[in-house]
Amino acid sequence: GGAEEQKPYFKVAWNDPMDVAKGYKYLYFTEEDANRFTPGTDFHGEYITEGGEKRYKLDDIVGQKDGLGVENLRGSGMIAGETSAAYAETFTLSYVTGRSVGIGAYINRLAQRVIQMQNGPLLLTGFGALNKLLGKEVYTSQDQLGGPQIMLPNGVAHQLAIDDQDGVEKVLRWLSYVPKTASDSAFAAPAADPIDRPIGFLPTKTPYDPRHMLAGTVSADGTWLSGFFDQGSFTEYLADWGKSVVVGRARLGGVPMGVIAVETRLVEQRIPADPANPASRETGLAQAGEGWDPDSG
Known about the structure:
By secondary structure, this protein is of the alpha+beta class. 21% of the residues lie in helices and 25% in strands.
């Protein structure tokens, strides 16, 4: 942000006053305007004389109100550093509940795990600024840059939340699988199923949904076929990214575990259209089951 009280008094010393495209040398106040404020406190610089005029050449602007300059970035940088360091010590997770721009988007990504609400785009630069840069109206919303339809397929967001209640529930459920710190053991909850139970679902020779093997399913006659893990404990993450692999967390005998399974069926990777390219169209790329594709990792 800028110091609004000083904006009307800024002057520009151009390299060539007849051709401003050649850039400028510095910003300055006239001596009269500089005396409206407190040099050395509200801004820093030095008095110079150019063209017979005494000017206050600006080095930096502080402003009369705190929080207009690098203080904001310094605070954001501190949060980013602490978030990155915390990943080595404990569980880190970001819940994107609204628009997250610039350093805010970086900080969310540094947590390594992201739950994104459907109305919470993640982006570095707004669509208006990009349209000005491109010189035409290419983007019409922030969602085209960082909405769930972009961030889920590219693997940045792990889960989608419909609203804040759904988002908080997903956060709490994820926390239930993980230990307090990286050196602690995961908390074992009371098991929903006995550990010596038989597994009802049997894999077939034909392609099947591996989620049924992990979580169980209801058979055609309405009976419950138990899966490998405790009933109701499996949660899938990154469902839209690397579809040839199924990953998530679950409990076995009440003990939290990570899950990696291979998709046996033919799946389709969705590649969104690029609004900046008029010839671009959304495409689907078929991926065979039981294979490792570039987006599987």
